[in-house]
C-alpha cells in the first residue's frame, strides 16, 4: 500500500508540473509555426517550444530585439535523442556555447511535422552571460532551420536559419486574473468604429460617440476583449473609452455622425464632457483580453435608458497609406449580477503637452510627476475609505525606456505598484498585480519615466503623436471614487529659468502653453517653444537641465466627475517633488557570480515530496530488514 501511495504522489507531482507549463502560451510568429508555452514560480521558469520543423530551433532573451547580448538556447531531436545547448550572442553570428550550461533539458521529441522541447532555468542564474528573468518586458528572439546540426552538438553547429527568425515582446512573469467561468447571464456588446477611413497622415486621434447597450438598471462590466481590424494591427496604437455623463443632451450622435479629429476646434463642445464622466476602458498595442477580479465589476447603466461612450483612437500611419478602412474597438462583457465592488480607473500622469521637455542625446533622461496629495485626500475623504489597486497600465511612447508607478507613505518609499525597466512601446499590457495595493489618505502616488533620446538630434516634447512623449499610469482599483485624473508637471519657469528667462506673466495649471515671457527684454516676444528650441543642447547641458528641473517647482491638479462634491479646480498647487526616504532594500541573490551560486526562494512542494519520499523509502526498507 505504501508503494501505491508513493506512486500516486509522484505521478500527481509530475502531472501538476506538466499541466502547469501551459499556463501561458503565445505564437511567436505571424504564421503560428513557433508556439511557446511556459509557467514559473518564485525560483525558476519552464518552457515548452512546439515548432513546425524537424530540424533545430532557437529561443533567446534579448535586451533590444537583436542578437548581440542575447541569452540563447538551441535544441533539436536526432534519432530519438533530444539535445539542448545554452549559448550567448556577442554578434550576428552563431552564438558560442556558455561554459556554464544553465538551461536544463527535461524532454524532447519530434513527429512528422514538429519538434517539441521542454526545458527550464532559474530566473537568476548568477551567470554574467545569462539574462535575469523578471517582471520587465522581454524581447524574445526566435529562429529555426529544417535540418539538424551537421555533427550533433559538435563544432559545426546549427546551419543558418535563413528567414525563419524574428522577435516578439512579452512579459514572461506576468500575473493573470485567475480564469473563471463567466456567468451564463453575461451579455456582450461591441464598441467599434463604423468603417472609418484612416487619414493618410502619420498621427490621428479620432473621437467618435458610440452607444452603450440600453439597460434599465445598473450592470457590471466584467471583461474587455480587443477587436482590432485584421491587417491594421500596426496602425491602431491605443484606444480609450470615456463615459458621457449627459447622454440626453449629446449632439453629433451615431449613426448620423462619424466623429471628429479630437484636436478639431469644430468638434462638438459637449463631447469634452465625456472626459469628465470617467474612463470605461483603456487598451494599447499588444494588449490582450482583460478580466475583472471576481469581486469587482465596472458599473454601466446606472441611470437607466440610453448611454454613450466617446471612443478616442490613436492611429499611427507613418507610411501615410490611403484608403485603409478600420472598424476596431472592443467587446464588453457585462452582467446584471452585481459584484461586491464598483471598479474605477484613475489616470496619474505628467503633462502630455510641450511642458514635458526631453533634450536630445541622453540614454537616461528622468521625468517625475505626482498625484497632488490634497486631491487624493479630498476624494478619498468623500469616498470614506481607502482604495485598492489591482492592475496598472503603463503608457509611454517611442523614447520610453523605463517606467514605474511609485507609492509613498509617511515620507517613506513603499514597494512600487508597477515597474518595467525594459519598456516596449509595442507591448502595453494591463499588468495585474500579484497582490492588491491599498492607498490611504496621506499617500502620494508618483509616475516615473526614463527616456532614451540618444538617437534624437532635437528636443522631444510631450504630445499626442507617437513621435512626441507621454508618461502615464492608469490604475484599476475599487471602490470607485469621483476622481478621474491626478497629474503634475514642471512649472514653466522651472524650465525657462534654465534658458535665462527671468519672469513670465501670471500662469496657472489650466493655462497650458498660454505663457507670456516678460523678462529679460530681449526674450519678451519669444514663445515657450522658441526659447527651448533655441537652447544649444549637448550631453552636459542636457544632464544639467535634468538635475535643474527635478529640483525645481512643479504644479499639480486633478479632475473629478460631475457628481463629486469636491471643488477640484481649487486644488491646484505648486510644490517641489516629494523626496521620500529610501525604499525597501534590494536583495542580491548571487553569492558568487563566478561560480553561479545563488540564494533563491523555492516553492515548498518539491521539498515536501522529497521529504515524504525519503521517509517512505526508509520505512519500507526497515520492513525488509
Provide structural commentary.
By secondary structure, the protein is mainly β. The chain is 12% helix and 38% strand. The protein folds into two domains: 20-170, Cellobiose dehydrogenase, cytochrome domain (Immunoglobulin-like); 187-576, Jelly Rolls. The protein has a seven-stranded mixed sheet with strand order 30-27-33-24-34-37-38. Strands 11, 14, 18, 19, 22 and 23 form a six-stranded mixed sheet that branches. The longest helix is centred in the C-terminal third of the chain and has 21 residues, at 604-624. The radius of gyration is 27 Å and the shape is globular. It starts with a helix and ends with a helix. The model is unreliable at 1-19, 152-156 and 593-625 (pLDDT under 50).
Overall average residue pLDDT: 85
Structural class: mainly beta
Note the overall shape: globular
Please give the CATH class of the largest domain.
Mainly Beta
- Describe the main β-sheet briefly: 7 strands, mixed
Amino acid at each position: 500500500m505504501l508503494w501505491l501511495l508513493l506512486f500516486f504522489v509522484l505521478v500527481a507531482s509530475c502531472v501538476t508540473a506538466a499541466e502547469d507549463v501551459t499556463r501561458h502560451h503565445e505564437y511567436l510568429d505571424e504564421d503560428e509555426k513557433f508556439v511557446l508555452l511556459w509557467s514559473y514560480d518564485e525560483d525558476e521558469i519552464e518552457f515548452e517550444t512546439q515548432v513546425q520543423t524537424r530540424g533545430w530551433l532557437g529561443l533567446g532573451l534579448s535586451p533590444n530585439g537583436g542578437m548581440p547580448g542575447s541569452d540563447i538556447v538551441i535544441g533539436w531531436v536526432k534519432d530519438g535523442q533530444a539535445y539542448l545547448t545554452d549559448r550567448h550572442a556577442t554578434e550576428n553570428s552563431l552564438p558560442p556555447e556558455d561554459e556554464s550550461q544553465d538551461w536544463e533539458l527535461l524532454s524532447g521529441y519530434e513527429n512528422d511535422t514538429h519538434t517539441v522541447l521542454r526545458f527550464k532555468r532559474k530566473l537568476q542564474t548568477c551567470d554574467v552571460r545569462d539574462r535575469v528573468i523578471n517582471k520587465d518586458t522581454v524581447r524574445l528572439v526566435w529562429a529555426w532551420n529544417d535540418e539538424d546540426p551537421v555533427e550533433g552538438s559538435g563544432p559545426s553547429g546549427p546551419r543558418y536559419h535563413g528567414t525563419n527568425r524574428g522577435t516578439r515582446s512579452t512579459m514572461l512573469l506576468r500575473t493573470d486574473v485567475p480564469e473563471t467561468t463567466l456567468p451564463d447571464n453575461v451579455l456582450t456588446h461591441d464598441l467599434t468604429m463604423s468603417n472609418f477611413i484612416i487619414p493618410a497622415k502619420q498621427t490621428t486621434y479620432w473621437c467618435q460617440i458610440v452607444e452603450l447597450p440600453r439597460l434599465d438598471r445598473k450592470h457590471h462590466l466584467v471583461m474587455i476583449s480587443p477587436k482590432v481590424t485584421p491587417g491594421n494591427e500596426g496602425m491602431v496604437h491605443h484606444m480609450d473609452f470615456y463615459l458621457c455623463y449627459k447622454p440626453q443632451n449629446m449632439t453629433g450622435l451615431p449613426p448620423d455622425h462619424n466623429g471628429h479629429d479630437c484636436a478639431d476646434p469644430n468638434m462638438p463642445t459637449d463631447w469634452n464632457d465625456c472626459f469628465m464622466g470617467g474612463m470605461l476602458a483603456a487598451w494599447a498595442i499588444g494588449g490582450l483580453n482583460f478580466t475583472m477580479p471576481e469581486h469587482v465589476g465596472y458599473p454601466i447603466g446606472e441611470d437607466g435608458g440610453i448611454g454613450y461612450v466617446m471612443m478616442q483612437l490613436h492611429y499611427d500611419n507613418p507610411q501615410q497609406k490611403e484608403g485603409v478602412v478600420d472598424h476596431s474597438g472592443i467587446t464588453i462583457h457585462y452582467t446584471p449580477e452585481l459584484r461586491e465592488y464598483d471598479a474605477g480607473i484613475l489616470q496619474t500622469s505628467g503633462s502630455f503637452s510641450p511642458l514635458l521637455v526631453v533634450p536630445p542625446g541622453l540614454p537616461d533622461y528622468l521625468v517625475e510627476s505626482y498625484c497632488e496629495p490634497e486631491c487624493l485626500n479630498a476624494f478619498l475623504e468623500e469616498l470614506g475609505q481607502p482604495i485598492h489597486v489591482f492592475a496598472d497600465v503603463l503608457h509611454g511612447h517611442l523614447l520610453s525606456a523605463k517606467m514605474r508607478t511609485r507609492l509613498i507613505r509617511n515620507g517613506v518609499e513603499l514597494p512600487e505598484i508597477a515597474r518595467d525597466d525594459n519598456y516596449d512601446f509595442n507591448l502595453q499590457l494591463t499588468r495585474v498585480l500579484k497582490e492588491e495595493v491599498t492607498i490611504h489618505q496621506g499617500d502620494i502616488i508618483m509616475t516615473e519615466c526614463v527616456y532614451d533620446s540618444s538617437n534624437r538630434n532635437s528636443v522631444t516634447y510631450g504630445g499626442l503623436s507617437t513621435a512626441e512623449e507621454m508618461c502615464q499610469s492608469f490604475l484599476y482599483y475599487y471602490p470607485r471614487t469621483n476622481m478621474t485624473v491626478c497629474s503634475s508637471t514642471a512649472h514653466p519657469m522651472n524650465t525657462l529659468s534654465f534658458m535665462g528667462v527671468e519672469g513670465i506673466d501670471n500662469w496657472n495649471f489650466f493655462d497650458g502653453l498660454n505663457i507670456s515671457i516678460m523678462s529679460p527684454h530681449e526674450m519678451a516676444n519669444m514663445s515657450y517653444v522658441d526659447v527651448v528650441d533655441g537652447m544649444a543642447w549637448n550631453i552636459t547641458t542636457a544632464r544639467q537641465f535634468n538635475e535643474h528641473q527635478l529640483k525645481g517647482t512643479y504644479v499639480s491638479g486633478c479632475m473629478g466627475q460631475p457628481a463629486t462634491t469636491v471643488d477640484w479646480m481649487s486644488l491646484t498647487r505648486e510644490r517641489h517633488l516629494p523626496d521620500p526616504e529610501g525604499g525597501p532594500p534590494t536583495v542580491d541573490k548571487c553569492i558568487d557570480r563566478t561560480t553561479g551560486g545563488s540564494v533563491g526562494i523555492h516553492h515548498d512542494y518539491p521539498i515536501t515530496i522529497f521529504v515524504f519520499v525519503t521517509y517512505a523509502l526508509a520505512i519500507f526498507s526497515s520492513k525488509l530488514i
